[in-house]
Amino acid sequence: MSSSNQSKTTAIETFLASYRVKDVETRIALFADGVVFEDPVGTPPIVGKKAMNDYFVATVASGWDIDLVPKKIMINGNEGVSITEATAGVGGHPPVTSTIVQIFIFDDADKFKGLRVFMDTPPA
């Protein structure tokens, strides 16, 4: 694996691990200023690093417990994909586990400039 591919893989792994420990500061540092985030694809995107930070802070504040475990990470050029087992719960309700696919687009500094999330059970 090239050093650039390793850097991208490490960024994705760090992003996923930040959810379990609710580390918004580490997570947001992985994004480029003009990032576009679709979670899930088909919903209005969140645009810009500040908006991303606000979104992540609100998610933590609302009590969500999220664990994202990568099953496979693949890097091709300036894009990466993670097939991820996502377990999420809020407010004492039993957590739900599903498979998500995350497509990461990197800038020249290996920061995320785009992130699209596909779910096997998208919201209605």
Question: Which characteristics define this entry?
Answer:
about 120 residues, Nuclear Transport Factor 2, Chain: A, globular, six-stranded mixed β-sheet
SS element count, helices: 3
Q: Please tell me what the overall shape is.
A: globular
Low-pLDDT segments, ≥5 res: none
Separation of the first and last Cα atoms: 39 Å
What features would you describe in this structure?
By secondary structure, the protein is an alpha+beta fold. The protein has one domain: Nuclear Transport Factor 2, Chain: A (Roll). Helices cover 29% and strands 44% of the residues. The protein contains 3 helices and 6 strands, in the order ααββαββββ. Strands 2-1-6-5-4-3 form a 6-stranded mixed beta sheet, covered by helices on one side. Strand 5 and strand 6 form a beta hairpin. The radius of gyration is 14 Å and the shape is globular.
